[in-house]
Amino acid sequence: MKILKGDQVKILLGKDKGRTGEVIMSFPKTLKIVVKGLNIFKKHVKPQNGQKGGIVEKERSLLVSKVALVCPSCSKTVRVGYNVDKNGVKTRICKKCQAPLISKK
């Protein structure tokens, strides 16, 4: 999966189309991610073990195909490429400006 935790992404489909946010969790096996503050739904929770009940807002996971990575250097939505150094170190690069993509973890 080419989108990692800490990356900035732009949502391409759905009710939050066009908004950007930071990836807080990624699930590579199911190809899903959770974006901070986006794709929020409300859940009704019963009181349990002394905790208060009520309506709680949570982020729902998104498919990776519904988001695009935003390059930190050129600030555009980009596709991800890979570059292998002479030492065998594999790094992600921006396909438009060839800058390395470093995620904030």
Give structural attributes.
105 residues; 10 strands; six-stranded antiparallel β-sheet; 44% strand; mainly beta
Helical content stands at under 10%
% residues in beta strands: 35-45%
> What would you call the structural class?
mainly beta
Distance between the termini: 16 Å
Number of strands: 10
The order of strands across the largest sheet is 6-3-2-1-7-8
Element pattern in H and E: EEEEEEEEEE
Gross morphology: elongated
- What's the CATH topology label? SH3 type barrels
Number of domains: 1
Radius of gyration, rounded? 17 Å
What does this structure look like?
The chain has 105 residues and is mostly beta strands. The protein has a single domain, classed as SH3 type barrels (Roll). Helices cover 0% and strands 44% of the residues. The chain has no helices and 10 strands. The protein has a 6-stranded antiparallel sheet, with no helix packed on it. Strand 2 and strand 3 form a beta hairpin.
List the helices and strands and how they pair.
Layout (H helix, E strand, L loop, with lengths): L7 E4 L8 E8 L4 E4 L4 E6 L8 E6 L2 E2 L3 E4 L6 E2 L1 E5 L5 E5 L11
